[in-house]
Specification:
With 209 residues, the chain is an alpha/beta fold. It is built from seven helices and nine strands. The chain has helices spanning 21-25, 46-55, 71-82, 104-118, 128-134, 140-143, 200-206; strands at residues 6-11, 30-37, 41-42, 59-65, 89-93, 123-126, 147-150, 167-171, 192-195. An eight-stranded mixed beta barrel has the order 1-2-4-5-6-7-8-9, surrounded by four helices. Helix 3 packs across helix 4. The radius of gyration is 16 Å and the shape is globular.
Length: 209
Amino acid sequence: MVAIQFLVVDLYHGDEVISFAPAKRAGICGIIHKASEGADIVDPEYAARRQRVLNDGLLWGAYHFGTGADVDAQVNNFLTAAAPDDDTLVALDFESNGPDTMSLDQARQFLTAIETRLGRKAVLYSGNLIKQQLGDQVDPFFGSHRLWLAEYGPVPHVPASWSQQWLWQYAGDGIGPDPKTVAGIPGAGGLDCNSYAGSPDDLAAEWAS
């Protein structure tokens, strides 16, 4: 089993939050929150929770849930909703969504547009979908983006385009190894828990780079 350092929680509006301060005291360093989905959906808790997180001295990140909608519209929706500053981690959530699943080409277009607009690369969150789409192929474009790997279990299995994951979502929906809880953030049916292999200082230095 790989050593787990539970340092990051990712959230959306359906997750219950009491207070971020106890989570920070328990060792959580960063929160990545859903900002948007598709071309026109905005998470209603994003803006308020952002201020609360920053007030409590944690790192803040924003992710976009990709769909099959027009990519330019999705990029605009995300950047408007997320309003990222230089300290905000930005990420694309690339996962299965039935007939509205974002294609690999759309993911490539989205990530390219984010880099053009912000001057830095987004993090790619994915698990089974990126493994299915790329197989054993080494793709230099996707490999140049930090991988936030979703795999609930004791050991992460990284696709061929990466030598290792940057973040590892090792538990969610109540599935995966412990720890799966943290003070102040009960979640809703199972907290999304993420491990980082380096130190908290390393995480802070790399967070929005």
